[in-house]
Amino acid sequence: MNSKLGFSQKAALACLLLTALSGYAVSAAADVGYNIDVVVPLPIPVNVEYGNTEPYYGVPRHDDRRRDDHRDHAYRPAPPDRRRPSIPSHSRGHGRPPRD
Amino acid sequence: MNIYNHPLRRLLPQALCAMLLYALVSAAALGLSFEVPPLVAPPSTEHHAGKVIWVDLLTPDIAAAKQFYAGLFGWTFQDIKTGDSNYAIASLGGRPVGGLFQRKASRSEDRRSAWLGFIAVTDVDGAEKNAVAHGAKLLKEPRTYAQRGRQAVLADPEGAVFAMLASSSGDPADELADPGEWIWSSVHVNDPDKEAAFYQTVFGYDVFDADSDAKSDSVILSSDDFARASVNALPKDMDTTHPRHPHWLNFVRVTDADSAAAKAVALGGRVLLQPRPDKHGGKLAIIADPAGAVFGVMEWSDTDSTQEPKQ
């Protein structure tokens, strides 16, 4: 048997190698699909009301009258002289107004 | 039989080349078929770490979700085929407001439907490691989507699920949301104090008390001098038969919370918290869509955020 490969055999082996690589590319491309499928526990069981909630769920308003909080917290409270912030008040396309 | 002299030998290279061409075309087609749009177009250089900049709905029935949210908020949808999953971008007035992701069907309540908020960061990998080091659990490894950016999904130390995103097109500008757009977010947990510390550590928030009179455990998370979210205590009336799970809750701005709640019911949703004034201002309601995803609706006037709270 002649151990030397002819041009056709070399071309065939090259194609085989490239096909294998492109097959990997196909599988990799198939994996680019968007996937955020994680388990998010439902806040409450189905058919149960949300329940008695405290009245501070909403957007805060600016408030200069912040208390000087001397309680111990796990977090670092913002300095009491800083005004409590709210959400942006200017509409789209009008830019951010000058800070107070 | 000598295979080297087989008549088909000459056809082998051509056949393999055809297979190669097919594989390359398939790969290109799959790659090109999936493009999650950028958050901001044209791209901006704005970055607002700590801001909730995107929300995705995980739902087992994307068609039903489209019908519900189109009817409730007037959203329109652009389908994006992503390999073996379905994804759609919801828009209002031509501006993207969120994504709808079709999850695999499951009878488990935990996998029914949920809104997932994405918090802006500049370095997802660093923030994710920091979060995990402080008690979070990584649910989806950081991954880059060409136009959107790099993102990861985590559960905070109490189990509330959130995502972080480093947008490659910049973050949406700090502007007042229009009706039909997301305006506010809150996380509801057992220990607001410790959870606020966690989010402060990961996102660098300034933390303010929500109530000047110290009547509440709630706190406000702030960045860039804007309120970004509140940390609230879970309802105190919980019992063991109806346990509540720590969770994030996102609110859509509406012009009439009563009308929105009624319309949600007519579209197959449920009202979990009847419309009522919030002490901070505005009127809000909490709603579950037909598949169980919970979100809020909130009235907010253009001048509300400039007013001082009423005492």
How does this model look, in words?
- The complex is a heterodimer of chains A (100) and B (311).
- Chain A has one helix at residues 7-30.
- With 100 residues, chain A is mostly helical.
- Chain A starts with 6 loop residues before the first helix and ends in a 70-residue tail after the last helix.
- Chain B is α+β, with helices and mostly antiparallel strands and 311 residues long.
- Chain B folds into 2 domains: 17-34 and 48-167, 2,3-Dihydroxybiphenyl 1,2-Dioxygenase, domain 1, CATH 3.10.180; 174-299, 2,3-Dihydroxybiphenyl 1,2-Dioxygenase, domain 1 (Roll), CATH 3.10.180.10.
- Chain B contains 5 helices and 16 strands.
- Chain B has an 8-stranded mixed sheet, covered by helices on one side. Chain B has an 8-stranded mixed sheet with strand order 10-11-12-9-13-16-15-14, covered by helices on one side.
- In chain B, strand 3 (85-92) and strand 4 (95-102) form a beta hairpin.
- At the A-B interface, helix 1 of A face helix 1, strand 6, strand 9, helix 4 and strand 10 of B.
Average pLDDT rating of chain B:
86
* Major sheet of chain A: none
Weakly predicted, low-confidence segments of chain A: 26-31
CATH homolog superfamily of the largest domain in chain B = 2,3-Dihydroxybiphenyl 1,2-Dioxygenase, domain 1
Mean pLDDT of chain A: 69
DSSP helix count of chain A? 1
As for the CATH topology of the largest domain in chain B, it is: 2,3-Dihydroxybiphenyl 1,2-Dioxygenase, domain 1
Helix content of chain A: 10-25%
Report strand order across the widest sheet of chain B.
Answer: 2-3-4-1-5-8-7-6
Major β-sheet of chain B, in short? 8 strands, mixed
Q: Which second-level CATH architecture of the largest domain in chain B applies? A: Roll
- What is the strand tally of chain B? 16
Q: Beta-sheet strand percentage of chain A?
A: under 5%
